[in-house]
Amino acid sequence: MTDKIEYNEEADDILIEREYKLLIEDYLASPHRKKVEKIEKAYQFAKAAHKGIRRRSGEPYILHPLAVSRIIAKEIGLGSTSICAALLHDVVEDTDYTVEDIDNLFGSKIAQIVDGLTKISGGVFGENVSGQAENFRKLLLTMSEDIRVILIKIADRLHNMRTLGSMPPAKQYKIAGETEYIYAPLAHRLGLFSIKTELEDLSFKYNFPSSYDEIQKKLEAKHVERMELYDKFSLPIVNKLNGMGYKFNIRARIKSVYSIWNKMQMKKIPFEEIYDILAVRIVFEPNPNVDEKEQCWMIYSTITSIYIPHPERLRNWLNTPKANGYEALHVTVMGPNGQWIEVQIRSTRMDEIAEKGLAAHWRYKQNQNSESELDKWLSTINDILKNPSPNAMDFLDTFKLTLYATEIFVFTPKGEIKTMPAGATALDFAFEIHSELGMHCIGAKVNNKLVPLSYELQSGDQIEILTSKQQTPVQEWLNYVTTARAKDKLSGLFKHEDKATRTKGEEILIEALIKSNLIETRVIPNDIIAILLEHYQLNSFDDLLYKIGNSIILLENLESIIKPKNKRKTIRYWYPRFFVSGDNNDKNKSVKKNSSQIKKEETIQLTDEILNREHTIAPCCKPIPGDEIIGFIGKNNQIVVHKRDCKEALKIKSQQGSSIVTAEWANTQQKYYTGILEIQGIDRKKMLLDILSEISEKMEANIEKVIVNTNDGIFTAKIYIYVNHVNNLKQLYNQIKKIKGVQKVARLEE
């Protein structure tokens, strides 16, 4: 018998009314025209529509649209139309009201936004594609008509992330993965930096709770020390700027938990070696009689008269703002304790654009005639939407390419500046200028030097594109481009050609399988497809058919490839002799699971036996016991186990979240996996001997292989070690760090 939960309606009403009053206060504090009656009408309608409905957390459902509306009003800075749409955004989905009802009561504009925000069940591309990707595509189609749709969606996602704790783990992983993969980069691209940071931190919190807590505790432990450093550093700056008559605000900015963790992963360093946790931000009220950018440089000059600047860490986004509209001047200076500290200099206008993104950008844009980078980005999105991919996930991947965080600045032959994503090539640049230029490109001159199509552009390059009317694109060009615009144009061109080639390839494959007596009908079973993809090391069936149709794959010895079905590519492992016991025939027994046996709400316990028979370790990240893991239901209902921080796993979470199952290691792991440690230090006699002695003799670990390099007195070793738990690697890490001359130890993945 379950306990009945009693709810106090009177207390609920008091809470709801309080939240509504706070919403109105946020709205009245904004610069928008005051249309409280309009908001009141939407609030009362939504309150009545959601009456009696509760969220999983137990709170009245209306509190969710109210919270989203407050984010829209206060944190993004939108007006009454957006607030009303946010209040109504779940009414059509969750009640009997229709978009037509919203149109009749609140007008076509609000109805259009609500329609764009309404979740779509299923996709138009069939049951086997990602509903997540399809929904996102439909959302972007509506966004192309009204950008407020995506801004409200981000606000909706932010509140869902703030209240994600009430969801079951599998749901948390799905939503957190989606958020990290798409919504956080999208918020960054739209200039919503505070929201982007919070989305990243919350995603990290639910994906890696123990790592999040560990970093958070370390940050708190050094908080007083950092604030003392901030006070000591900022006081001379405050005194100087006050003396110059500036109206300004100066505050400490602490690196986010996710940003710290990401840097630790990228550079393979511990928390203690992150030295740029503290930054300082100065926001000033500009003098109307002096150019705003000039005042930024004046403040810069004042700061560098107090502290010595780093010669290579000046970031000037004044004359060439970032693609998301961000403007500021960043300088890194040597602080009083021998520590580098970044100072960010912004005007109040720049700060509002940095915090509220598009909403602020377009408010200030009214006085400008030139097309901004944000406008160009929206134009690129519209181009992609005009030529949609037949596969929703392909579309999502193409869209993801537009969400670059890092840009470079290059020049045309006439000196016009262009913003390109880092990693862009000469061919990307040609398509950026014009599609026809890209289609007929034969090469480029960069800084008056001839370069190939694949040349990677650098900031400051001046590019002249060389063309020929006889030139036509080839499939290889897809390997030379990184931007969404170029990939979309080339993919569209090859689409028809590819389809014909794949059809030919499928016919050849079917005939070959029938001839080899591997199939009886013209339907190719999924298990055969999986074996062929693994054998030829391809990612998709379409890739296989294309290569067969182009005679790249000749389908020799099909029977020998397909018949040994028991041979599966997996992680390298071994069993020590003292673990081997029992009936050896047990390994030939098989257990098959059908879809009805996999319960997504339950946590899969990974044992040696289960891993051998039912599930498999992902070859992309090769998790070992002790790693934080996640499972996905793959072909034939086999669960594929990934590390939670695996890039491929992140992509799957964002596109196929319904396949997620929670998984954890059991305590009976007897299988030995290969872990890799990279060791760097000062080269000396017996360095390698000391390391190997520590591993083999003192720690009694078994070594698979060792790769050693020395260069100019620097020693680098890659050691492959058999372990049965990640703790083994941690113990080795701690012991090797103590060896004389060792400077760095890090775990590697291959």
Explain the overall architecture.
The structure is a single chain. The protein is built from 29 helices and 21 strands. The chain is α+β, with helices and mostly antiparallel strands. It has five domains: 9-209, Hypothetical protein af1432; 215-365, 2-Layer Sandwich (Beta Polymerase, domain 2), CATH 3.30.460; 492-562, no CATH class; 573-665, no CATH class; 672-748, ACT domain (Alpha-Beta Plaits, 2-Layer Sandwich). The strands form six sheets. It has a five-stranded mixed sheet with strand order 1-2-5-4-3. Residues 119-129 and 565-596 have low confidence and may be disordered. A hairpin with a 2-residue loop joins strand 8 (441-446) and strand 9. It is 47% helix and 16% strand.
